[in-house]
Amino acid sequence: MKYVKPSMIQCYICSVITDFALSFGTIPYVLFPTMSGQPLGILSYLGIDIKSQTLLIIELLIGVACSIIGILENRFTCITRPRSSLKNHIIIYTLNGVYSNIILYFVFTNCPEQQSARQIVLYQLLPSDLPSHFYTDPLFVVSLNSFQVGMAILAIYVVLFVECIFFALGTTYKLYLQHNNTNLSSNTRKMQNKFFILICIQCSIPITVLAIPVCYVIISCSTSYFNQALNNLAFILFSFHGILTSISIILIHPAYREAQSLKKFCLMTIASKNNSWSYFNTPEFLVTSLHILTIIAIPIHLLGFYCVFFKTPPKMRYVKSSMIQCFLSGAVLDFAFSFGTIPYALLPTLSGHFLGVLSDLGMSQKSQVILIIELILIVGCSLIGILENRFTCITNRRSRFKNNFLIYLFNGSFLSFLVYLTFSNCPEQEEARRIVLYEILPPNLPAHFYTDPIFVISLQNDQIATTMMISFLYTFITCCGFVFGTFYKLYYLEKNRNLSKITKKMMIKFFILICIQCSIPLTVLAFPISYIAFSCSTLYFNQALNNLIFIIFSFHGILTTLSIICIHTEYRRVVFSIFKPPKTRVQSVFT
C-alpha cells in the first residue's frame, strides 16, 4: 500500500482536522435558510473573527472532498500511468484548490454591512417568534442572497463529485479490461479489484455523510424553510463524518485490522480448515443475522401499522393511501428477505440458493427470485407514488386518483417487462452450476457449495446488471422529477394562488419531511445495488460482503418504518403517548 499511503494520510488528516474544527474549534450555530450564524467554539474565545472561522470550515470541507478525489485519482493513475502519479496528483490538487478558492473569493469579498444585514435577517427573513438570545447573539451574515452562496458551494461540490465519478468509472473500466491489455496474472488482477472495492467503500462513507446535510442546506435555502433543530442536526452529521472515516480506514483494510489486533476483538471469526473462510461467509451467519432482524422488526412494524392505519390525522388524508403503500411495501420486503427467502447469493455469479421458510414450504427458487425482485420494484413504485401524490395535490387535486393509478400502472408494467425479459431465458441448471462452481468461482470453496441446491439465474452478468441499473435509474430519475416539480410549484405558489404564508410554509415543511422519509430506502438500497453491479462487472467474489449487502437490504424496512414514525409529528406524539409513563396523583391526607 506504499503507493496509496500519501493519499490515505491526506484523507485521514483532512477528516480529523475537519472533525475537531467543527466539534471543538468553531461549533457553528447556523440559521439556515439565511447565510448567517455564530460560532460557539474555542476559536471565538481566542479572538479569531467569525468571517475567518467561516472561511476555515468551508476550506476544510473542500479539503476533505479533494482528499477523496486524491485517493481515487491515485488508484486510477497507478493502474494507467504509474510513473506520472506524483505529477498528476499535484496538478489535480492545484486545479481543484485554485478553482474552489476563486469561487470562495467572490463570495466572501462581498459580505454586506453587518448591522443592517442582521436587522434584515432577524426581522424580515426569519420567523417572528424567535427566542430572545437571537437578538443579542453576535450574528455574522455571509450574504443576504442565499441562492448565490448556495449555488457557489453547489458548483464546487458538483465539479468535485464529477471528478470522483470519473476516476471511479475510469479505474473500473481499466480493471475490467486489464486481463486483455496487460500481462498481469489473474491473482494480481483480483487483488487490485479487491483493493479498489475497499477504497470505494472507504470513500463512499464521507461522501454519503456529507451529501445528506448538503442536500438539506440547498433545499432550505431554495425554499426559505427554517428549522433550527434540523440546522443543528446537519452540523452534527458534518462533525460525525470524521469518526466514521477513521473507523472505516481501520476496519476496511486488512493490514490495519491486523496491526491493531481488531480482528481478535471486533471481528471474531470462525476459520475454516484452510483458515481463509470465516464465519461471516457462511449461511449460518446470514440466517442468524436475518432472524435477529426479524425479531427486532416485528414490534417496530406493528407500531408503524397502528400509527399509519389508525392514527393518521385528517389533515394527512390525501397522503394516507400513499403512506400505507409505502409502509406495507417496505414491511413485506423486509419480512420476505429476513424470513421468507433469506437469499444466499454467490456474486459475481448470478446464482445462489434460499434458506428461508418458503423453501421449506416447497416454493421453487425461480419463483422466489422473481418475488424478491418484484417486491424491490414495488418499493420503488411506492416511493414514486408518494412523491407523485404531493405533486398532484398541489397542482391538480381533482385528478389525483386518476394520475396515481395511471402512474402505478405504467411503472409496474414497464418494470415487470424488464424482469420478464431477464428471467425468461434461464440456462439449463446442471451445466450452469458446473460452470459457476468450476470455472467462475475460486477453487478453494467449502464443501457445502458443491452439495447446495444452487439456482443459476443467468450466465450473462452484463444483461442482469444492466437491467438492474436501468430499473434503479428510472425510479431515481422519476422521483427527482416529482421532487423538483413540487418544489417549483411550492416556490411560485405565492404568485399563482391565494395562499397565506403560513399555509405555504406548512406545505413546504410537510414536503421536506416526505422527501427525507423517501430518501432513506433509496439511500439504503443504493449501496447494495451499486456493489452488485460492480461485483458483476469486475468478477469480484467476497461471500462476506455478499451476505452483508442482503442484511442491508433487509434492514431498510426497519429504517423506513422508523422514519415514518419519527419524522411526522403526529406519529411521534402517538408513540410518546404510548411509552410515556402515566402521571401519578398525589393525595394529601389530613389527620
From TrEMBL:
The chain crosses the membrane at residues 12-32, 52-70, 147-169, 195-219, 231-252, 286-310, 322-347, 367-385, 405-423, 468-490, 510-533, 545-567. Pfam families: 7TM_GPCR_Srh. Keywords: Membrane, Transmembrane, Transmembrane helix. The keyword Transmembrane applies. It comes from the Eukaryota. This is Serpentine Receptor, class H. It comes from Caenorhabditis angaria. The lineage of its organism: Eukaryota, Metazoa, Ecdysozoa, Nematoda, Chromadorea.
